[in-house]
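INFO batch 0412 | record 1 of 1 | parsing
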Amino acid sequence: SHIIALLVIAIISLLISLIYAWLYHKSTKKKIRYANYTYKDLDCPNVEQFKIDIVNNMSNTTILSKKYSVVAFKIRRFVAISKMLGEKDANEALKKATQIFSGVCSFDEAYAYLGDGVFVMLIRYHDETTFVRKLNMIKAFLAKNSITLSKEIPLRFRIGVCHAFGGTKGTAMEMVDNALAACKIAEEK
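INFO prediction complete | emitting tokens
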């Protein structure tokens, strides 16, 4: 009976060890995923997660009839302004913007922060009117919530758009690059 009791204790100990190892592995895997796909300072998706989201959302066969665009929102003169006012104020403003982008994203859309005051968003829509309406809603939320780097300097965004209808003709990063190029053109004009 002592041998059976010791055997049962050994089996229970082994099971507990296996469960602990599995939970530890799962936790570690989650931490690694978070580190690889999250912009840590803002606790929001980064460009790597955004690329995955573009592929996942646009390859869904049930929604191929819907239109998608990648929209870049670049804060005007962000690097210079944030250097002048400090990293803490800049991060607070970016956190407010992150909350807005997170709030306006539907389940089949995505957003990410790329760094240096640049957000990107995958927007789904049915026609040009709904696209413009969604874009205006986002701009209104950004303005209404008074995102500022300090009380005197409200953030202004340049916007660039790359349309993709029923799937993408390029890679996810090419779409992001095209939206950023459109932002650059908007800055120059």
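INFO post-check: DSSP finds six helices and eight strands in the chain.
INFO record closed
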